[in-house]
Amino acid sequence: MKSLIKPIVTIILLSSVQFTHSAPLTLDLLPGKPECLYLDVPADQCMIKYYFNVQDWLKDDEFVNYKIYYIPNNQNNKGENQRLLITKENQRIGEWQFKAVTKGEYKVCYESESHKIIDIDISYDCSEIMQDEENMFEDPLADNTISLKKINDLTKNNKLNELITGLDQQVSNLRNNLDYYKLRNSRNLKTVESTLKRITWFSLGNILLIASVCVLQIV
């Protein structure tokens, strides 16, 4: 009976994720069993944003693998034509965004060889698309006062926005790596301190043992 209840709860949880704009949650990932979250994007060119963090970084095996798929409308969740968009391996933390070229259903699947608890926040943002649709009816060439320099500036601004987005992603990755190295160095420092304490107590034990043997020989 318990084995039947768990799949039903999982289906209900994932179904609720499909129709929400933002879905922060905590995922209980079992060993060797992939778990997938679904997001229904309502329009083309929306931005999908996601963040996840594996709890308890102090363990050496706190890594997960994840993949992101696009599911065509005429396919079910197990369809063979679902498109693999992104794949990452051995990740502790991740924060990224990408453009959903086509509206529809997207899924993020996590998998690990050991039990993990993962904090996840996945959402979509279509505000830029709505703004672009409002500007579609505004022809920049309809204004006689516009210059070629202004058109070139608009093109440069688009390229600058793309560059800023790329730099933001690199800074985010650098911050995540620094956090990881900070925790790893802290863990290594604790290991060294523990080893030094053991060496100290071991040395004191040897001194007491030698002193005791000498006293016994004299007596």
Structure description:
Helix content is 44%, strand content 31%. The termini are far apart. The chain has 2 domains: 137 residues, GOLD domain (Jelly Rolls); 74 residues. The protein has 3 helices and 8 strands. The strands form 2 sheets. It has a 4-stranded antiparallel beta sheet with strand order 1-8-3-6. Strands 2-7-4-5 form a 4-stranded antiparallel beta sheet. The longest helix is centred in the last third of the chain and has 71 residues. With 219 residues, it is α+β, with helices and mostly antiparallel strands. The radius of gyration is 28 Å and the shape is elongated.
> Are there runs of 5+ residues with pLDDT below 50, and where?
1-20, 140-146
Question: What is the CATH class of the largest domain?
Answer: Mainly Beta
CATH level-four homologous superfamily name of the largest domain: GOLD domain
Largest sheet: 4 strands, antiparallel
**Element order: H for helix, E for strand:** HEEEEEEEEHH
Number of helices: 3
Counting DSSP E segments of at least 2 residues, the number of strands comes to 8
What integer value in Å does the Rg equal?
28 Å
Gross CATH architecture of the largest domain: Sandwich
Mean pLDDT across all amino acids? 75
Helix/strand class: alpha+beta
Largest beta sheet: strand ordering? 1-8-3-6
